[in-house]
Amino acid sequence: MSKNLLRDVLSQEEIRKILATHPRRPLLPALDSEAWKKVARNPLLQPLAKSIRARAEKEADQSMPPLTDDLYLIFNRTGSRWEFEVVYFERRRQLARAAIALLLSDEKDPVRARLIPSLLTKLTDIFEEAAWAFPVHVKDSSQRDPLRTDLFCAETANLMTEMLDLFGSIIPAELEERILARLHEQIWENYLEQHKQADEWWWGKISNNWNAVCHQGVLGSALSRLDDDALLAKMLFKAKESLPIFLSGFGADGASSEGPGYWDYGFGWLTILNEQLEARTEGELSLFVGDDHVREIARFGPRTSLAGGHLLCFSDSPPIGVMRPANLFYLGERLDDSLCRDQALVNYAHILEKGLDLDFQRSDLLYLVRFFLRCPEKLPEKPSSTASKDIFMKDLAVVIAAGTDAKGHLWEFAAKGGHNNEHHNHNDCGNYILNIDANRFVTEIGQPLYTREFFGPERYQNLAARTLGHSLPIVNGCEQAAGDKFAVAVLDYSNTPQETKFVVDLAGCYPPEACCLKLIRTFHFEKSAGRLTVRDEFDLTVIRSAETAIVTVHPIATGKNSATISAGELNLVFRFEAGTVLAGIEDHPYRHHDPMITTPVAIQRIVLKPAVSGPKFTLGYTAELS
Question: pTM of the entire structure?
């Protein structure tokens, strides 16, 4: 009978006995196994396999970009992360491309004579990195600490054991011994030591993605290659203390303030760990069994997936991107959940149609192996998700609603309440987004370029995190303030097949100097009519200045009492209510999250102000397609 490692009462000795009855075995199918031969025959994957093979062959005789001393030290000197991280991820992508090309070749393929040495050289180079952790997460002045377990050190530990599982038949015994020795000392035994050190073990006591990702790398690698059942049992027993904290960060309805991007990361990695644990113990131990909360968390992914490869981009989440279809497919099968299964097919179809970006930061082994292994051999002609887009996530105070207007245009609307101390927080209570036919008419930045300042005291000077970068009011020169006491009061929510209404008071999100008694924001989304009305009612003790804004990335044309945003072939007209006047259009540049995108990017703010001065007034507008 399967037991839930996190919920059931299990002693360390009971865990050891379960492990002892299930001898260790590879957790992934090895080179030349039938599983990989089947993948190689999958017609949907042929174009992708061909492009990976071409890159791998080109890179076979090339050295990987080195992680130099200077790269390690840049963050300490300047606070810039990207120079190191670009090289770090490219090294792992090159190893992944060599691995996939080799896995999809057959024994008689002449290219193996070049791919095998390339694979072993790349594996050795990554293994021999002085430290696997990012400099941003290391306190030592050298920015290298082999005992620092961060997200990426843990990921590299898992990478090492997955390489052994996949290519154990060709990896030299001496290299395997060195890998296992480093894992024993710096990862597995160190994991138990970290429990004794508060500054090292902080990630085991928090509810964000760090907890799950670090545990997956540490425990997943041990489940794959650790033969010492007593040591592994001790590690799993320790994890019983920490992983429930991670799950507690999700609301009863499965929602996470980290947003879909970090759901895909944190819960996605927990999903992989569950698969590894169940495979290692042949289902006797699980993180999922008997846990209805896990099922709701799994549904957060499809529920926050929008049409055309877009995401609900509140907090540090990308506005464009599809969540890992392999993980969604696993969740659909493991939990027998149609929302996850259907979204997986949608995401596979989207990626296979658009083509997988092999230079995307995380097109690494963890991603590619599972993408190939789980890809179906055929897809529905027009795959569609059954995830309901009419949702109110109570704990987050996030509304999502969708509807098709009379001309067949798909409208997707979302708005948020919450507070200003959420995970990956932006000072954005009351913000909203509006997509039509997968065009981002009203949007936000989501993730900017990550720097030291963005995760420090200067965070809310960054356009992506401050109120200025969102479709929100600025009151008496004040933007919203950071902290959980700066929160929304939800006044009303209602939803029918025809319309969605959401009413919040934003006054509590602003500092005292904003002089805000009330700031009632009302959203009225008429689905079949194709109409969104947004109205802000101000009640101030003092009025010096006030404005609200509409944020977009598309061209804007202005008219009398209106502004039009054009995207694709669609024109969305914002008609201003009486007493609301257009004050101007502002351009605000920012750095894209992808450091390789060096072309300047910017948002535009349509700024609206009251026609007359007074402490009580309303700013409002209605959006309809022309």
Answer: 0.95
